[in-house]
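Extended Data, panel c. Modelled sequence:
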Amino acid sequence: MTLFCRDKAMTAASAIFERFSVPGAGVAMVAGGDSEAWGYGVCRVGGSQPVTADTTFQLASCSKAYTATAMAILVDRGELGWDDPVRKHLPEFQMHDGCLSELATLRDLLSMRLGYRNEGIVNWGRNLELGVETIFERLRYLDVIAGFREQFTYLNPAYTLIAEVIARRTGKSFVEFVRENIFQPLGQTATFIHEGQYLPTRPHAFPHVFLDNGVEPVGDARCGGRLGESCVYSTANDVTCWMRLHLAKGEVGGKRLVSQAAMAEMHRPQVWGPPVPALDNNFLAYGMGWQCRDTPHGPVLLHEGGEFGVSTFTLLDPKRSIGVAVYSNQTSNVPVKAACYALLDLLAGREPRDWATLFETLNAQEGEAIRTFLASQLQDKQEPLAEQDIAGSYFHPANGVADVRAVPGGFDFRLRDGWVYDGLLEPAGGNAYRSRPYYKGTAGMVRQYNLNLLFVRDEQGIALRAPGFGTMRKV
């Protein structure tokens, strides 16, 4: 990789970051044995600390590839099998159907093909004192939206369960096992795993969200996900050896970490997903920890991640042994995707497309489709309910209890098992209320969808219909 390529790449990436008001980003590129890594912008708006190639970022769901790789290491050792029944290692595991509970395998978890809707505190944002036992207790109450092994349905807790399998099988914490078997052998000296709020001891890119006044810092660094499905922190420098490991089919620096067979199994399609024709993509599947797509130039592996004020993307072209990773400290995934695809074009010697406009358009279309869908689910045809009818406690078997209390300007909403969802419910007409989360991180994630909730009265009494939480019944 020449200096000219680095300069051209930095210019291309910076133009995208500036266009979308990205506060800071870490960028890494690899081509064979060569690599480049650099930082852009600042760690926090209003601050002066620059982002460098050694600044840490929360990787969000790009963490899943680490979990799958940890599993692959144990498969190589003969300690686990891809097709081991989940209950062989987690006897408490339960789906909505007893037969499926027996049939489900570790491969099914890793390829996320159980058929559940990815929602609520089982998926994301539950209080830290609620451990993996919450998944064992409540997974079976999630909405079923596809047949078992029928299609890819994103499911964060599947990877938390894999982390639990690894811990039980090895007798070590998941954090310790990954550190000893991945981070240290790869020389990832600045990469670590941390669940919940992180108090930085080294340069760190703090999260930012888009609110009414523009880009604002969230104020803290926090992982809303759990071990296995999120919670890895890394840097642009450290990710170069991570990408090389996968491009070189399990070997880095003459050291084999994972067998070629296990790598191939992770990278091959396990379950089909919907293609994206606008990306010249007629084939999409999920492997294990990686998404598999076709392009006019050959197959690629990728994964994206989104968290409180964080967006990440990793894109690999195995055919050409090139890869790009971009981590940013703001919510929108448009700039990280656009930068990755543009830089991969440069590495491959192609003239980059206008990826920024394309992803901006796709993001707007997706947002409008989601808003339309949510509105269709919350049509209010009833007489307005009285304040005393609405106030009270509501229950859902997957999400627990929510307390709704009348306050000036609407209702105070508190979810006992997931404080990040707490907020003010403002009147939006009739029995509909607009959610205004108290936590900036959550507010930035729901703002773009104009998230509404609806109170209804039916034959069973008063209920609260909330996207991502199903129907919560007043108790």
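The mean pLDDT is 94. This feature is highlighted in the accompanying rendering.
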